[in-house]
Amino acid sequence: MKYVNVYIQNNIAKIDRLYTYKLPENMELKPGMRVQVPFGKGDRNRVGLVISIEEEYKLEYDLKEIIKVLDYEPILSEDLLELGFWMKEKYLTKYNQSFSPLLPPGDIKVIQKIAVIKEEYVPKEDEVAFFKELEKNKYNLSFVDDNLQYGKLVRDLINSSVLSIEYKVETQISAKILKAVKLKEDYLSRISKGNLKLTEKQLKVVEFLQDKGEVLRSELLKELEISDSPIKSLETKGILEILDREIIREPYEEVAATKLNTLNMEQIKAFRGILNSKKTVSLLHGLTGSGKTEIYLKVSEEIIKEGGQVIVLVPEIGLTPQMIERFMGRFSGRVSVLHSKLSSGERYDQWQKTKNGEVDIVIGARSAVFAPLNRLKLIIVDEEHDSSYRFHNALRYDTVEVAEKRMELLEGKLLLGSATPDIITYYKAEKGLYDLFELKQRAVVGARLPDIKIVDMKKELIKGNTSIFSELLRKHMAEKLEKKEQIILFLNRRGFSNFVSCRSCGHVIKCDNCDISMTYHKNTNILRCHYCGSTKKMVSRCPECGSKFIKQFGVGTQQVEEEVKRIFPRAKVLRMDRDTTVQKNSYDEIYNKVKNREVDILIGTQMLAKGLDFENVTLVGVIAADLSLYISDYRANETTFELLTQVSGRAGRSQKGGDVVIQSYNPDNYSIVYASNTDYENFYKRELKIREQYNYPPFSKLINVNFSSEDERYIDEVASDVLLDIVKSVGGYKLEYTRIIRMLRIKNIFKSKFTLKVDPDYIKELTESIKGVLIKNKDKIEKYNIYVDVEFI
DNA sequence: TCTAGATGGCAT
DNA sequence: TGCCATCTAGAA
């Protein structure tokens, strides 16, 4: 007798584990196949994924049997299964968190029971109603479940072999549904008959709809800058109706073939080096515009020639159209693009195509690292420093680490590319763990580096200029508008939090222990460090210079937009941020508008920093370079350097050259200065020293242990028990830890956390300890309904 | 999360 | 005693 361990997809912490079933003697099964199993008290049918098959079963438990095998071939290859286990161990996640991303898109647990009727069967008189119903439901038997009479009839029909049941596993393809708004046909008569008085806003809505007919609700809200309530009240008055509209997403179009570019000497050296490297990981460090993409293409070509397959990861697929175009052009017909705007159905098709070996290259965002390619030999991670690859709330793994592991398992190569590599990555390359290749020339002959100037905003304030634009930036803007050249204004609000800064001297209130800016909590009027939990009273005067112009900082893109419109009323302005690009194709629209010069000034956040190449953009203005300096994160300087470098790269993509104006209250900050000189090496050296001084990564590894619950009472008690146990269980190595920090309550969920800091060489041991301690405290955690998660940051 | 089965109140 | 609403533990 054999025993099968099965993973059943769900996101309920309480039942997140593997389940063991007996394997019937005559059943053939391999790990990675899906099976149908009885589950729960009612033995409901569920789909499970076979994780492993064992010869013995030791525990006393009355095991159930597997009902049916659903696949002929494993849908998950061995390396992916192993990767799943590896992630689970490394990141201490739930099964669901480490196995779900591996599975085909859609919901594997939905099983349809389809009736198959013997062809020649003629229904008896009392069965006619049932057969009609059956036809109406397209032979799907789900309607029988709540009808006792039919249940008996179905059993009888099965016994007399008239009816047999076919189980169909369907990936749940949920169409994208958005709300649309439309005037009711008789709205005019309703208004006149009911003698209704409409408010100003309601009137605006009616007029808009008279003009446009049917409009998406989100569009209406945005266009008229109103809230939902006028629409709601119009609906209750019976003047308009709100409808569900299905949005159909278009898959990626084919593009024209791109021609081969010849490589310069530097590129050839890197290309050969990467191919011949004996190490799993190569880091390609090259300026923006130094031709990294060309090397990606060449290396991919070689790998494919040898019968391999390639995955290309990009930070956000919608933002890198040029990269995709070039791959599609070069490897026409053999590329699958996992676009974030694909519908689930299209996504599923792409998955199938990949699994069937119909493509050589998969391009996609982070989750494409699990693409089911059978001959995978190369993974390319473009802009490897990008934070979307790294461990965070929604992503319980580090994409680069996973890619490295997968390439180790398959004996392939991982190629990391960036103009501003992650400090940790560069450190590893420097230590010789990765091979390093540098590109220092620009690939396009004649393209000049932009002229970058830093403006001290404190001096502007002394001069009496309280506007958000410095004189220099305003002057440049006027010039470029005159010349009909285009301008990008950038506001790096990434990770924006409420830090407190002095407008006179630029001083920012930082934590005494952590060198990290403190967060202002408005309701309690205190400053708190989100790293160690220590607090300070909010100040009314700057502790540095005594000025009373000290307050929490915050400028929004909307504010910038208003100011631009005020100063340059005739300029055509477009704003691009999360709010304006949620709509389908809105990114492409903005892209095309800028490309066709329908826009003079483009205002936006970090989305602008990535991959936008426009010849006619000759001025980039950074409104407040400081904003990203004070996010409560040890990476603040790194993030600032990255953003400034990337956004500066948007100016002067052609022979026209360009200007960059960086406004800052801290013009001497090293990340700003080095970014303005495009000097990665020196930035790296300086940053590394500081990291060493404060023992931040790469010299340590940080782990957050989070406790959340709807019930406030026991969280801190349990958290401190766990912390104490972890500290007790540590042997032979040094562990730093913070106190227990109470976080802001979000959606009525209370959350507390503590942070552990450990030598990276002992991360495995510490992970094991945490795992052990969590198992030890399991009863307590479950009793008080506390959810624990571990973040490796 | 889902639901079989236990529990207990209440009408008959 | 039967019936239903509500609660609760367990999922292999």
Automatic annotation (TrEMBL):
Keywords: ATP-binding, DNA replication, DNA-binding, Helicase, Hydrolase, Isomerase, Metal-binding, Nucleotide-binding, Primosome, Zinc. SUPFAM superfamilies: P-loop containing nucleoside triphosphate hydrolases. Gene3D superfamilies: P-loop containing nucleotide triphosphate hydrolases, PriA, 3(prime) DNA-binding domain. GO terms for cellular component: primosome complex. It holds the Pfam family DEAD. Its cofactor is Zn(2+). It is an enzyme of class 5 (isomerase). One of its GO terms (biological process) is DNA recombination. Binds 2 zinc ions per subunit. Zn(2+) 2 binds at residues 511, 514, 529, 532. InterPro entries: DEAD/DEAH_box_helicase_dom, Helicase_ATP-bd, Helicase_C-like, P-loop_NTPase, PriA, PriA_3primeBD, PriA_3primeBD_sf, PriA_CRR. It comes from the Bacteria. Its EC number is 5.6.2.4. Residues 534-719 form the Helicase C-terminal domain. Belongs to the helicase family. PriA subfamily. Component of the replication restart primosome. This is Replication restart protein PriA. It comes from Anaerosphaera multitolerans. The lineage of its organism: Bacteria, Bacillati, Bacillota, Tissierellia, Tissierellales.
